[in-house]
Fold these 2 entries.
Entry 1:
Amino acid sequence: MAKDLGVTIHESCKPSDHISTIARKANGVLAQLRRTIVSRDKEIVTKLYKVFVRPILESSVSAWCPWERRDIDILEKIQRRATKLVPAIGKLTYDERLKVCGLTTLESRRERGDLIQVFKIMNNFTAGVNAQSFFNFAYQRHDASTRSVTNKLLVPEKCHLDVRKYFFPNRVVHPWNSLPLEVREAESVNCFKNQYDEW
């Protein structure tokens, strides 16, 4: 096991060890906030969570994005605890508390972040990364003028291991292809974000 740029990398390439590490750290910070903040106003709690806790759970997430439900739930549980700090909404469901606080699930945020990164790569906003060598496109498979070719849809590679199946260029294929064409062909990164959120 090694640590590189703050990410704990296990020899199996599974993110479970890294998730356990950041979950402990995030829970510690959340506990400190709970003990020290006097006002539990919704705006204050939400802002403090966004500034001090959520970045711990999302730093370099493209490199270690979880795929096992156990790991996903470990991270989501921290946000569940954070939303319960707001008075009078503790008995609401998690989805209802997220709406009150103006938040989305961490799982949804990770997918949104992945797709923003794909958009940047596809439009040469990421230096040193060539989309043609990073992704597999439908038009690379055949010359027929099908919808998948004209819309520049992505094709996942055939994988036998989950580690490879959920590697960034593969896990983003289905979410990216499911986006409407007008969203994928947005004029700028901000435009893509706005259209994606509306969609």
Entry 2:
Amino acid sequence: MFEAIRENPNQVIVRDILKTNIKTAHVFEKYGIDFCCKGNRPLQEACDEKNVSVETIIDELKDLNTSSEKEDLRFDQWDLKFLIDYIINNHHSYVRNAIPQLMPHLEKVAFKHGEKYPELLEIKSHFQNVAEEMYSHMEKEEKILFHIIKYLVDSKHFNEKPRMNGFKTVKNPIDSMEAEHSNAGGTMEQIRKLTNNFTPPADACNTFQLTYKELEDFEKDLHIHVHLENNILFPKAIELEKELLKL
């Protein structure tokens, strides 16, 4: 696999690498390569954007693949209903638990240290925007889009042509959700820059350090969350609908 990537980095799509081993995300995270919202592009293009050598990425991917931490989860092979439930139970649940814990820490740090580190006020404002958008976003997915996708799965089971009614096609709500993914990802990228890659200053207190670690963990989870939806769940749902409309 790695020799094929080395020979044709312009032909290998970033999101397809993650499908073989989700922990390859660690390598892309290390170099700031967007594998979720911008995962549908060649590895060479992604590396060029960040001025990192393709050879460097391939070598680290190869080392990761041969380590004892190899991940066996193959999300692209899962039933769509099961994948949806996994996303809700793991990633949506994480977001709903993380925000109420993180927000008070961020408010406390901004209040106590905002004068010396004014970027904290901007970070707090950005994260408030992400939090509000994620709550609304997840509710729309769970109450609308995920039900549509499960309906498509059931339609295939019963060999029936789906009736999409006002949505016309599953692609319409998917496009909306992908736009919101980009907004959230872009805002977290701004937070990453403001925090110097989540690196607290030398005199940071324990709460200050904890807050930056929580923000970093939140971004990492968001990246996997969006990857599972943008690069696996949504494309499969669109293809399933196309298949069913031919009945």
